[in-house]
Recover the amino acids of this structure.
């Protein structure tokens, strides 16, 4: 895979949009007294992921998520040399979106940060499972490190939206270290950021192992690596 300005910019813009619209909907919901609602926030996250997959998926694969990038790498669908540039661009996009939220809503305290409402163990395990489901869907509807078919974006966006609908009130349903990193950094509260980094990475890794057990050898491994070289 050729890592160039186009692919890096696509990941930056895609993750920027995800955090701006997703975390931003949380902020707007707070400052307007619940105008968007939890259902609306869930739709915002799923909808923007869907839109970005169709917008930049053919350029960068629209990972928009360090855990997804690492998952593709673990599945041997993504080259090691491309991991760091992708993750840096994703984190940068999340930070820039979060900074913009501080400009628009300077009095908000968390800027849409993901914060556990229950115990750390409950939130950690929920993030692992939700990211596992997301990565399993992504691996199942993609070729190499890109989505395949017209309905791939719908499947992935729906998984994000349903995960947010179910897990949002408990763990924040981040499923994405970049989504949590941006708001945590600008709000100055990094105390639980480790949870939203470690849990999604663990969940993505479990999804790769499960894909190996449930699908043919082209899912993950040398065959998938060959596919990634031609399809990404």
């Amino acid at each position: 895979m050729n890592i160039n300005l186009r692919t890096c910019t696509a990941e930056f813009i895609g993750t920027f949009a995800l955090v701006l619209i997703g975390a931003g909907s949380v902020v707007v919901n707070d400052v307007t007294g619940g105008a968007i609602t939890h259902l609306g926030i869930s739709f915002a996250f799923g909808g923007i992921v869907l839109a970005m997959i169709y917008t930049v998926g053919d350029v960068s694969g629209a990972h928009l998520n360090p855990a997804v990038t690492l998952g593709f790498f673990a599945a041997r669908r993504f080259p090691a040399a491309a991991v760091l540039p992708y993750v840096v661009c994703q984190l940068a996009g999340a930070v820039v979106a979060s900074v913009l939220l501080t400009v628009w809503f300077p009095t908000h305290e968390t800027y849409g940060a993901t914060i556990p409402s229950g115990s750390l163990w409950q939130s950690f395990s929920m993030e692992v499972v939700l990211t596992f489901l997301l990565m399993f869907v992504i691996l199942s509807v993609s070729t190499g490190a890109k989505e395949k078919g017209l309905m791939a974006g719908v499947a992935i966006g729906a998984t994000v939206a349903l995960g947010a609908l179910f897990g949002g009130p408990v763990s924040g349903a981040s499923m994405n270290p970049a989504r949590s990193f941006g708001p945590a950094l600008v709000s100055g509260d990094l105390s639980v950021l480790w949870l939203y980094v470690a849990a999604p990475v663990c969940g993505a890794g479990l999804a790769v192992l499960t894909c190996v057990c449930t699908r043919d050898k082209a899912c993950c491994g040398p065959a998938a690596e060959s596919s990634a070289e031609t399809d990404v």
About this structure: The beta strands are 142-143, 146-147. Residues 226-232 have pLDDT under 50 and may be disordered. The first strand starts at residue 142 and ends at 143. DSSP finds nine helices and two strands in the chain.
